Amino acid sequence: MLCSKICDLLGIKYPVFQGGMAWVADGRLAAAVSEGGGLGIIGAGNAPAEQVREQINIARGITDKPFGVNIMLMSPHADEVAELVARERVAVVTTGAGNPSKYMARWKEAGIKVMPVVASVAMAKLMTRAGADALIAEGGEAGGHVGDLTTLVLVPQVCEATHLPVIAAGGIADGRGAAAAFMLGACGVQLGTRFLAAYECAIHRNYKDRVLRAGDIDTVVTGKRLGHPVRSLKTPFSRAYYKAEYSGGTDEELERMGTGALRLAVQEGDIERGCFLAGQAAAMVKKEQPAAEIVREIAEDAERILREAARWVR
């Protein structure tokens, strides 16, 4: 069975994380992934603490296995959610879109394993010094907020820069990607886009169908001008936003365009106005499956591929 030190650290069966996608990764999805042997993660996004508490309670009502909460540090509710997860003593906190250093001591006191998402070697070194338990090195192939470096380049450099366990993310959708991540030095993988096609993922049918039909060049990065690049599927919204971004639209106009667009995609399936976040791995997502089956397939396929690779080398 594919196992690594991240499994021992967290008490999980497989070294497979589900990304904490805002508006998408709720308590039900996170619990299904954890029940399947991976690490499910609730996406706090811009939600206030009370809504995040509700999702934590939902997850605990389904599973007694470890799960995490992802905190987007740009959220206006980041402080209250950071305190909530400490009081609730969730097993794991992952973070994105910022520096979580000011919260780290509180989380560690609560016995929480802290795993920031990093997109550069400099951030990896900073989070190592700050006392993180592991790092999630995410390449620009991922959906949502992205950095500039690709997973293939970022992961080995982060592995060299830290003594902490490294989880690879960005562009990984199957056992082949997981096996490649292990060869780069990672001891686990995080997938977001693949879990959009999980039965337990409650996104609108239009969103799920868009992912299942996606081709290899069907995503685009917008928001670079504002300093917060985001990868999503090509839709009327993303094309309009991209055009406004590079043809004279003001920053204020761009902010207004983006406000609420993800919710419109997730909850209403609004093709015209919704932002359908997805990574480049969408082209490799071909069918709906139970979350537990996705976790198991990735782990088993990766193990088989790594064993085969060992036979190829003389």
H and E order = HEHEHEHEHEHEEHEHEHEEHHHH
What composes the largest sheet? Answer: 8 strands, parallel
Task: Work out the radius of gyration.
Answer: 18 Å
Shape: globular
| Helical percentage | 40-55%
Provide the β-strand percentage band: 5-15%
Distance between the termini: 24 Å
Detailed description of the structure:
The protein has 314 residues and is α/β, with parallel strands linked by helices. It contains 13 helices and eleven strands. An eight-stranded parallel beta sheet has the order 1-9-8-6-5-4-3-2. A three-stranded antiparallel beta sheet has the order 7-11-10, covered by helices on one side. The chain is globular and about 50 Å long.
In short:
The protein is an alpha/beta fold.
Q: Main attributes?
A:
8-stranded parallel β-sheet; 3-stranded antiparallel β-sheet; 13 helices; alpha/beta; 314 residues; 11 strands; globular; single chain
